[in-house]
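Shipment paperwork, digital attachment
Item: protein structure file
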Amino acid sequence: MSLSLMRSTPFPQRRNPCAPGDHVRVYLSESDTDVKYHGLVCEVITDAPDDLGTETGRPLDSHRYELRRLDTDTALPVRFRHHNLVPVAERE
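Attachment content:
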């Protein structure tokens, strides 16, 4: 995902890492190869950080999350970066 798109996403991003149990909505651009997951409401299962934040200078870039769909209770086969997740109310 381009840095310009990351900076212009039209939603309030979390300022802190997600935690297991948090509910989030996946937000992806139309050109993303995983766009079929866009809009899904999920629960964070785990955080598998790497060193991307060291390279970009933005610590939140290091967070990669494993998610479980709330509607089917199945884990998604891909992990998503912090900037691809939007916080949602627990009732969504």
